[in-house]
Amino acid sequence: MIYRIFLYFPLFIIIPILIHLLSRRKIKNEPFPSLLFLIERERKLRNYIKFEEILLFLTRCLMIIVLALAGGLVFIPFKFILKGEMKKIYDTSLSTMGRIGKYKYETVNINGIADFEKTFEKYKYGIIVSDMQEINFRSILKKGKRYRYFIPEILDISEENNSMRDILYSFDGNNLKLYIKINRTGKSKNELLKISFDGNEFNKFVELREGDNIVEIMIKDVKDGYHRVLCNLKDDLIFDNEFYKVIYKGKREIKILSDEEPVFLLKALKMRYNPVWINNPDNLKKGDFLIIENVKKNLNLDYISRFCSSIIVSVNDSMMMKDILIKKVKPEFGFIEDDRFFISTEEPLIKEYEIKGGERILNFKDGKSAIVRKNNVFLTSFSLESKELVYHSYYIPFLYSFIERSFTDLLLNLETGDSIIGDFKRIETPQGMSYENIKIFHFDKIGFYRIFKGNDTIFVAVNINKEERNMKILGKDKIDYIFGKIKFYDGTGFFLFIFLILLICEKLLERR
What range(s) does the Aerotolerance regulator N-terminal domain occupy (predicted)? Predict the structure, then answer.
């Protein structure tokens, strides 16, 4: 399959040669009843000889090209065509990134938490490897009909495997309770679960029954602030058996800069944050988690942006930020349902802009935007116009996975059994069914949903297909090959084999 493109040119020569030789042999072996027939046969053979000279010349030219390829292409790279360009695809899943990180490839940072900014910067024009199967991408690709490409089936399906689906948590005073959701495919089995909490490791044997399991872990005396949890299942077959989770105890402080107190915004944020309303930018300090609402048009956003650890959520009708014109689209900054932030978009990500300072502006088809800075993502309610913006056309598979893991409060990935409450115009299910004027909706099927609320469209992914849980480990040999370290597919041997076939064809053509 890898060499298919290189077979086309030799076949255009080899097949005509074989047809020609068989036809010439047939004419030579025909009996001649008369002298006139013998003269006619010799005339045909002379024409064959002229055609042979052309084939012989083309064969020798092709032999030279193939010999050069044998020396130049030591191994043939694994490439796919994406929007007219030769590109590869790199999966955003933490399980794959964690395993690649073990082999010293730069995909995770020193804390063991995936650094997506660094990864996408490094591989956006390079390689993307998926541990998902081709079939599981079809439904999401239908949402963005412009993107027609496939994901390689790098991993094999296994009949028996464990997969960690999620890590939920709650606090009882200073005690942290972890609820680790594990799916078991195959008969029941006792497994060793390794847990690392802020670098402190401990083990626990757990009995996993077929189907969904919830393992409860208690960690005492947890202080306020960020905490890192890493769970690992000891198993020969791996799919997401390394699961990272960032936990925050306490309420994070958000500075809100506004001309007047934003009552709705404060009320919405108090569920998760400790919002502080200010109206003087001089009260900001570097590292503040900043939201700007209804600010004056003459406010210096360039000055304020130096203090943002997150991103601007809402601004006035229009203002300048350096040479970027920011225009107001809607007065709200998206919307909140069930204490979750949702991106409003009609299709998966179709454009990405990059501005100075490492910030990214993700622009959606319906005009909505989201800006990614480090690990924070926020929905914005403004559009951007600037000739200085750099346009990137590459497509990030499974946008919900990228968003979910980049900023833990912005979720598009739900579980079966979850519900959503609100005034929804229409909800479309993965099975093609449509429900009108819904107040409450239960997600009882896996797949990708579209939820229409007013003029907004929410793209929601519910669970992942069962096939995605049962895949064998991506070994070091394939990882090395993917990153171009070994000759996984021997290009030299392949082209020498083609050269040998052409050499045989040359000798057959030289025989008169």
Answer: 6-70
- Bigger pLDDT: 183 vs 423: 183
Q: Which residue has the tokens 């949890």?
A: 229
Q: By the 8 A CB rule, do 242 and 102 touch?
A: no
Which two structure tokens, joined as six digits, stand for 209?
């029954």
Per-domain residue ranges of the chain: 4-75+489-510, 80-155+473-482, 161-236, 252-406
* Residue-averaged pLDDT of the chain: 56
Q: Phi and psi of 175, rounded to 5°?
A: -95, 135
Print the SS3 string covering 286-339. CCECEEEECCCCCCCHHHHHCCECCCCCCCCCEEEECCEEEEECCCCCCCEECC
Cα 268 to Cα 248: distance, rounded to the nearest angstrom: 18
From CA 140, how far away is CA 448, in angstroms rounded? 7
Q: Which CATH superfamily is domain 161-236 in?
A: Immunoglobulins (2.60.40.10)
End-to-end alpha-carbon separation of the chain, Å?
37
Q: What percent of the chain has pLDDT over 90?
A: 1
pLDDT tens-place string over residues 15-35:
777 777 776 666 666 665 555
Portion of the chain with pLDDT greater than 70, in percent: 29
Rounded Cα–Cα distance for residues 470 and 477 (Å): 20
Structure tokens at 89: 């695809």
Nearest to 276 by CA among 294, 298, 258: 258
- Residue 218's pLDDT is 92
Record the pTM: 0.33
d(CA 404, CA 377): 9
Measuring CA to CA, how many Å separate 145 from each of 87, 139, 148, 174, 346? 19, 10, 7, 49, 12
For 199, the 3-state DSSP assignment is: coil
